[in-house]
Structures are given as structure tokens and as C-alpha cells.
Amino acid sequence: MSKVTAVIFDIDGTLLLSNEAHARAYVEAAAMLGIKADFTNIRSLIGKGGDKLIPEAFGFDQDSKLGKELDELKGKIFKTGYLPGLEPTPGARPLLSQLFGDGVRLAVATSGDKASADSLLDRAGVKDLIDSMATVDDVDASKPEPDVIHAALKKLDSSLSNVIMIGDTPYDVQAAQNAGVQIIAVRCGGWSDGQLQGALAIYDDPADLLAHYEGMFRRERS
């Protein structure tokens, strides 16, 4: 039986209501480059890194000339046109503050790069509570591969039995399972319970999880 001593958070959709904005930024960037883009398809892939999303959504590699142009332009559009207006998910800071106050170490594991993660955490209002960060800069492959979660675990130096992840996409669930980490899912990223199967539990958002805090974080788990 183990007590939770560390929590790994996804960022987009979990701590910040940003999933749709990322998809719209991709569509706008593609239009500026004369590339056909399907918003619904792209939205369904948000949560994967560009190394996975760009080939699946557009048919060319992220490392290709066109892939690099698209990735860079999308980043600029998101940062200037969308990020300033984004809101934290309900209860994001209160949940992290409660965990932090209880001595639980907090990390993030994201398919984005470090510079983007810093900006997202600032906007979510939780950057000061994060102990460590694992990003796509630390690994070879993004979610749903488990690499970034392995990187977060290494930085936390915690036993698997003492760690829980919190994420909002099927790719978070798959990555956590592949890493051997139990995961709690939240619906605020836009996925259904059926799409989040495999999670230890599913809550509406961090506020809902905070309302069930005693049961999830202050009890022994098997």
C-alpha cells in the first residue's frame, strides 16, 4: 500500500483551457501556408506532440521544410492570438495549492517544448507550485509514447507506486499506462468517459477532483 507523494500533471486541457485554441492555431497557420486543414481531425489529435500530430493531420513530417514552417507559424499564432485570452481550468490553482501544502511534489509532463510550457503554466497561474518539468525537449517521442512521463519520474526520483498522473486526453491515459503510472482523467479537455477508459477515476475538472481530495490523495492506495 502506498501514499501519493508526487503528482505529474499534463498542462493543456488539464490546467489550462487551451485545446481548442491549439487546434484553431494549426488551422490558421495551415491556411496561411496554403495547406488544407480539417479542424475536427486536428482537434482530436491535440494532446499529441507535433512529431505525431503534423504527420497524421497534414501528411508530412514535422522535420520537413513545410513541417517546420507550419510548426513555427502555429506557435506564433497561438502565443500572440490565443494565449493571452486563455483561462485556467476550474480549480487548477486550488488543487495544486492543496497538494503543495500537503508536501506532495508536483511535476508536469507535456508534449510541448519548455518555452511553451513556461508560458502555459504562467497563464494557468500555477508555475510557482511546480517542482520539475518534463517536456518534448527532454525526449525523442511525444505522447502517447511514455518517454516524457519517464523523464518526469526521473526528475521526481519517486517510486511508481507513490505517483499519480492527472491528464485530459486519451494520449495521456495511454502514455501513463505505458509508463506504469496510475492516472486520473479530467473531462475539461473535451474527451468523453469512453475515450478516457483506463483511467483510475474520471472527474469533471480540477475543482471536482479537489472536492474528492480526501478519497484520492489522503488514503492509502493499492
Characterization of the model:
- The protein has 222 residues and is an alpha/beta fold.
- It has two domains: 6-18 and 87-217, HAD superfamily/HAD-like (Rossmann fold); 19-84.
- Helix content is 45%, strand content 11%.
- The chain has ten helices and six strands, in the order βαααααβαβαβαββαα.
- It has helices at residues 19-32, 39-45, 50-58, 65-82, 92-101, 114-124, 147-156, 170-179, 206-211, 213-217, and strands at 6-9, 105-109, 132-134, 163-167, 182-186, 201-203.
- The chain has a six-stranded parallel β-sheet with strand order 3-2-1-4-5-6.
- The longest helix is centred in the first third of the chain and has 18 residues, at 65-82.
- The model has no long low-confidence stretch (mean pLDDT 94).
Write the layout of secondary structure elements.
Elements: E1 6-9, H1 19-32, H2 39-45, H3 50-58, H4 65-82, H5 92-101, E2 105-109, H6 114-124, E3 132-134, H7 147-156, E4 163-167, H8 170-179, E5 182-186, E6 201-203, H9 206-211, H10 213-217
Parallel strand pairs: 1-2, 1-4, 2-3, 4-5, 5-6
Helix pairs in contact: 1-2, 1-4
